[in-house]
Amino acid sequence: MHFGFSYIGLIFLIMLMVPNLFWTKNQPKDYEKYVHNESKILLLFERVGEVLVTCLLLIFKDFNIQGISAWMIWLITAFVLMIMYELYWIRYFKSEKTMKDFYSSLMGIPVAGATLPVVACGLIAIYGRNPILFVAAIILGVGHIGIHLNHKKEL
């Protein structure tokens, strides 16, 4: 693991954050009702995971392209998942913006808005051979995916 700026991490975070900024003005109907029921433990995992993942993606240059190798399949797969994540958001923004729309699956992937970026982050960790980011992605996944699954169950 080598410290240094990761432009791949920055691109990944931009792909993650831009739709979320639009979402703040396009939240699903009755969203606030569900937020009050969130598990405090899952919320803690989510927040800690968000901070760790955000920082770690930017401070390790191992996530940058290191040349052509078989390891690139992990990075390519991560970006395919992030493209699917963008498609999920396009579909959501074109929808009626209900809770069902927000917690929908995409191509069989449950709660795609939460699952796709977490798995993509784990794949970037594998590509960069960074166990710290991998653990951070697991922490984020427990919280973020857990919260989304609980909300989906409430529907």
Q: What do these coordinates show?
A:
By secondary structure, the chain is mostly helical. The chain is built from 7 helices and no strands. It has helices at residues 7-23, 31-35, 40-59, 72-94, 99-102, 112-127, 131-154. Helix 4 runs antiparallel to helix 6 (112-127).
Shape, please?
globular
Per DSSP, the total helix count is 7
Calculate the terminal CA-CA distance, rounded to whole Å.
43 Å
Helix amount, in percent?
A: over 70%
How much β-strand is present in the residues?
A: under 5%
Would you identify the regions where 5 or more consecutive residues have pLDDT less than 50? none
* Structural class assignment: mainly alpha
Record field, number of beta strands: 0
How confident overall, as mean pLDDT?
95
What is the succession of H and E elements?
HHHHHHH
What summary fits the major beta sheet? none
Using the CA coordinates, give the radius of gyration.
16 Å
